[in-house]
Amino acid sequence: MTLLIIGIIVFLGVHLLPTLSDLRGRLIARMGEGGYRALFSILSLLGFVLIVWGFAKAPVIHVWTPPNWTRYVAILLMVPVFILLFAAYPPGEIKSKVKHPFLVAIKTWALAHLIANGDLASIILFGSFLAYAVFDRIALQRRQPGGHVALAETGLPRNDIIAVVGGLILYVVFLVWPHPLLIGTSPLP
Predict the structure, then answer these.
(1) How far is CA 173 from CA 40, 126, 169, 176, 179, in A?
(2) Is residue 126 within 8 Å of residue 117, measured between CB atoms?
(3) Which residue, 150, 152, 154, is CA-closest to 92?
(4) Considering the entire predicted model, what is its pTM?
(5) Start-to-end CA span in the chain (Å)
(6) Is a pLDDT exceeding 50 seen at residue 147?
(7) Do 101 and 157 form a contact (C-beta atoms < 8 A)?
(8) What is the spatial distance between Cα 102 and Cα 85, in angstroms, rounded to a whole number?
(9) How much is the average pLDDT of 68-90?
(10) pLDDT digits (tens, 9 = 90+) for 149-161
């Protein structure tokens, strides 16, 4: 469980740096934009590896036993997650309406997994990401325009079509292949 917690602290800690504009600015002034990005990337990767490894090695401590139907709720909630992940990048109507689709995707992903998993490691992992996404969304509202976060703009309708089709394809692929391979369990019954 320790590796999981350290991984979460490293990964989310690095991703919270943009909310601390003074610290981020000092780091960029000291290391340069390229150095800052390199450090950000290395620490993000290290945190991600520790999260995956720590989650896989964490003991299964049941806090609550979710009813079987929660699996289907999670499967349904995950559909928009993949669409929102695609919509987070190219400008389109989805991005314009949702404002920050990546953060909405993280919140929905975390909530879906909290509903369907009752073990302590899952609660720590998904609860941390849900808290991060809520905090970051609030912090985004307080940041000054012109920061590193671009405001959503409406783009071509094809970008929304790409987001929906690409998201659905990635969802099905992830559901069938990488989730069982990487996580060790299939969400499908």
Answers:
(1) 29, 22, 6, 5, 9
(2) yes
(3) 154
(4) 0.88
(5) 27
(6) no
(7) no
(8) 6
(9) 96
(10) 444 456 788 999 9
CB burial class (10 A; 0-12, 13-18, 19+) of residue 85?
Answer: buried
Residue 151 C-alpha from the chain's centroid: 19
For 36-184, where are the E strands, in sequence order? none
Rounded to an integer, the average pLDDT of 108-135 is 97
Distances (CA, A) of 18 to 1, 78, 136: 27, 27, 9
Structure token pair of residue 10: 């490293």
CB atoms inside a 10 Å sphere around CB 153: 9
Structure token pair of residue 115: 């509903």
Q: Alpha-carbon Rg of the chain, whole angstroms? A: 18
For the stretch 28-69, pLDDT in tens is: 999 999 999 999 999 999 999 999 999 999 999 999 999 999
